[in-house]
Amino acid sequence: MMSFTKVFLSADEVKDATFFESCGVADLITTCYGGRNRKVSEAFAKTGKPLEELEAEMLNGQKLQGPETARELQGINHN
């Protein structure tokens, strides 16, 4: 995440310590273990249902962000 952020911002604007603050770490852990993208992805792996169908069944009107973000970021190549 730190390297990715530095692609979009000047390296001196990005403070590494920010990523290690309790709020940043807590948000990352919560997203990885309990976020809607993870829950729907797990259901996709178990059931094979289309993401759109799972989104409608599981998210009560919320939308997934992961698939669209992955599509947008796929073409980014930074050394």
Description:
This protein is mainly alpha-helical and 79 residues long. It has six helices and no strands. The radius of gyration is 16 Å and the shape is globular. The chain starts with a helix and ends in a 6-residue tail after the last helix.
Short synopsis of the structure:
The chain is mainly α.
Strand content: under 5%
Give average pLDDT, whole number.
86
- Extended strand count: 0
Rg over CA atoms, rounded to whole Å, is 16 Å
Global geometry: globular
Low-confidence stretches: none
N-end to C-end Cα span: 15 Å
The helix fraction, in percent, is 55-70%
- Strand and helix order: HHHHHH
Structural class, by secondary structure, is mainly alpha
Largest sheet: none
How many helices? The count is 6
